[in-house]
Amino acid sequence: MKNPVIRVEGLGKRYWLGQNTAPYETLRDSIARLGSVFCRQPAQAARGEFWALRDVGFEIERGDTVALVGRNGAGKSTLLKILSRITAPTSGRVELHGRVGSLLEVGTGFHPELTGRENIFLNGAILGMRRREIARSFDQIVAFSGVEAFVDTPVKRYSSGMHTRLAFAVAAHLETEILLVDEVLAVGDAEFQKKCLGKMQDVAHEGRTVIFVSHNMSACAQLCRSAVALQNGQVWLTGNVHEVIKKYLIEVSASSPTAVHAQLALLRPDPALRVLDIRVFQLGNDNRANFFTHLPFEIEMTYEVKVVERNLRVGFDLIANDGALLFRAFDDDMQRHERRLGVFTSRCQVPGNLLMPGDYVVSPSIGIDPDRWIVHKDVSIGVQLMQIDGVNMTYMDTYRRPGYLMPELAWNVVPRG
Amino acid sequence: MKLHDVPRQLRTACEPRKTGPEMATVITPSAGNAPGLSDMWEQRELLYYLVLRDISVRYKQTSLGLAWAFLQPLLPAIVFTVFFGKLANLPSDGMPYALFSYAGLLPWTFFSSSVSQASLSLVNSTSLFTKVYFPRVFIPLASIVTAGFDAIVSSVVLVGLMLYYHTPLSANIVFLPLVVAIAAAFTIGSGTFLSASAIRYRDVRYIIPFMIQMLLFLCPVAYPASIVPEKWRLVWALNPMVAAVEGFRWSVLGTPLDVRTMGVGAVGAAVVLVAGVKYFQKVESTFADIA
Questions:
Q1: Where are the domains of chain B?
Q2: Which tens digit of pLDDT belongs to each residue from A251-310?
Q3: Nearest Cβ partner for A85 among B33, B50, B53
Q4: How crowded is residue A258: how many other Cβ atoms within 10 Å of its Cβ?
Q5: CB contact under 8 A, A98 and B19
Q6: Which A residues 152-181 touch B at CB under 8 Å?
């Protein structure tokens, strides 16, 4: 690359695990440690080390938009924290050409007692904007957030939606040469999310360098030109966004039962529910990962209910291989189910003659509405559909049709007159 | 006062600096993320907004608002006058005791509220500096500048007392900036040191009130320097607040001053300032990891 705006070389970040993971140290600990110097006790004997990032290196060209993808714990957030100078690396070196703005969390530093107007200036200053810049884009910020009528009202009187919209609006108007964005699009309602995505696209088109972290692969694909995939704290893939996402989705989606169980084992334990098994299969087809488009396939989730929750929703997302979320479905979409304590199975049939041939990911979404997700974006199961029969059969060999779906619809062709 | 009203001086001074591709930021483990002076200058407006936030929030949250600025030194001054002045009959360098103690409490209150606010300021803003990068030293500095603003407001009462007791302003007032510099250096040094240590050692929260109370009696706030035995005077003056309090009264009211205390105090304040800021810079890069 001729003109890298970000150059990362051999970057590493080590955290200590074990006994001394207390968030802070007390004076007593330090005095005790001082004592141990004289007693020749190894002070760090019980500590283990953990490299959140290890030997990470890449270059990003000016004006590029880069998606940073990876599973939870792959090191994405640590990398962003180092690039935005929130935390220092343990080894390696980063060279940044230009001002860096980071949107790691929107609304940082908002004070509830201050008015919207005052918070725009305060938050802007915290994010590194100069007063002139804020004043210049003040009207745009207010218009974008849609809180015009409340700009002189203390923020504590805002609804949470207004709060996030205003916070995002400030952050979105950062005018730095390099912009780091972490999952902030996951705020607000669908309409506002669309607006945010549009804004990020504008930023990308202005020729500024953007690093975008998201689990939303279709947002990544829409916004970015290239991608860096991290795995276990190391760079796994770099290159064109579509290629990286495709390989990444295949890599992260497990289809064998053991791989699914490995993913389930990593779930955070939840007091209300434990997932025992998740299976995706096609009746009348022994092949576990290769399904036929013309036959329905089944998704079966077995779980133990440990606390009776009226609003427990068990469902899944179906994701295409470019990251597009095709749909999300829940077992109570049509009616509620009474669930007492014990083991239950929610089974769903995805009809045949619905999807195009290709790679898909089934990602279970289980949660208690509106309180929390129990499983969400944590488990991905790969599904490959191939066509031997059904819709489009007539032209199967000669014509690959566009779109995600090829549903079987009721056509009626009759002679007129 | 509105948060978005930037004074004119600042407005003309904040023309954007050229930040082109030739300006590279290099992040390495040793350079870490401690900001240099140029970073601080670049983001100086943030300090201004943090101070305005502190002032206007207090204004909105409390019913007495700005009145707290002078009530803080005024209430103890009344207590001191009754107990130390009238009942214990402590000397006051020939000044009316109320005026004498208020003139001591004004710089003292600046120091004590600066240090108690600043020391916990960082711990209370972990959600800020673990999410965004900016010169973190601004957080304790903002508490100190806010206390400085209070001190200026509360000097109105001092002027009132001087008029009431017909006490003329001393010609020593020209040396006031020197006294303020000593007080500010010591306060900034201890404020940054304590705020950074509070991140690591939460014990600081409990030590501060105790320490401030002890220090109050070690400072010539309620009594004049003259009652301290001659041979102990220089050791006593190692606490730079001795020079700040004595110096303040000397420059405003013209009370006697031992110049050696000023010298010792100035050196002490400079040492604390350098040590505090250096310590802050040293541990700053680990804040986000241990907070």
A1: 44-290
A2: 766 566 777 777 787 788 889 999 999 988 888 776 666 788 888 999 999 999 999 988
A3: B33
A4: 8
A5: yes
A6: 154, 177
What is the rounded distance in angstroms from the CA atom of residue B237 to the CA atom of residue B266? 10
Phi, psi for residue A235 in degrees, rounded to 5 = -75, 125
Contact at CB, A126 and B132, closer than 8 angstroms: yes
Closest CA to B240 of B208, B269, B272, B275: B269
What ipTM, to 2 d.p.?
Answer: 0.81
Are A213 and A68 in contact by the 8 Å Cβ rule? The answer is yes
Note whether B128 contacts A126, CB cutoff 8 Å.
yes
A4-250: CATH topology is Rossmann fold (3.40.50)
Minimal Cβ distance to A86: which of B24, B48, B130: B130
Residue A194 has a CB neighbour count (10 Å cut-off) of: 12
How far A215 CA lies from chain B's nearest CA (Å)? 19
A24, A102, A126: residue with CB nearest B200: A24
With helix as H, strand as E and coil as C, how does chain A read? CCCEEEEEEEEEEEEEEEHHHCCCECHHHHHHHHHHHHHCCCCCCCEEEEEEEEEEEEEEECCCEEEEECCCCCCHHHHHHHHCCCCCCCEEEEEEECCEEEECCCCCCCCCCCEHHHHHHHHHHHCCCCHHHHHHHHHHHHHHHCCHHHCCCEHHHCCHHHHHHHHHHHHHCCCCCEEEEECHHHCCCHHHHHHHHHHHHHHHHCCCEEEEECCCHHHHHHHCCEEEEEECCEEEEEEEHHHHHHHHHHHHCECCHHHHHHHHHCCCCCCCEEEEEEEEEECCECCCCEEECCCCEEEEEEEEECCCCCCEEEEEEEEECCCCEEEEEECCCCCCCCCCCEEEEEEEEECCCCECCEEEEEEEEEEECCCEEEEECCCCEEEEEECCCCCCHHHCCCCCCCCCECCCCCCCCCCCC
Say how many CA atoms lie within 13 Å of A417 toward its Cβ.
0
Domain A257-395 in the same topology as domain A4-250: no
Domain boundaries, chain A: 4-250, 257-395
pLDDT tens per residue, range B14-27:
333 344 444 678 88
Contact criterion met (CB < 8 Å) for B32 and A88? yes
The alpha carbon of residue B262 is apart from the nearest alpha carbon of chain A, in Å, by 34
CATH number of A257-395: 2.70.50.60
- Say whether B129 and A81 touch across the interface (CB within 8 A): no
> Using CA of residue A168, residue A174, residue A177, residue A180, what is the dihedral sign?
negative
CA distance A7 to A252: 27
Can you give the length of chain A in residues? 417
Closest CA to A239 of A253, A252, A225: A225
A chain contacts of residue B288, beta-carbon cutoff 8 Å: 81, 86-87
Chain B partners of A125 at a C-beta cutoff of 8 Å?
43, 45-46, 48-49
Angstrom distance (rounded) from CA B155 to CA A361: 70
What is the tens place of the pLDDT at every residue in A180-224? Answer: 888 765 566 667 777 777 877 787 788 888 898 877 777 788 788
Inter-axis angle of helices B138-164 and B240-253, nearest 10? 40
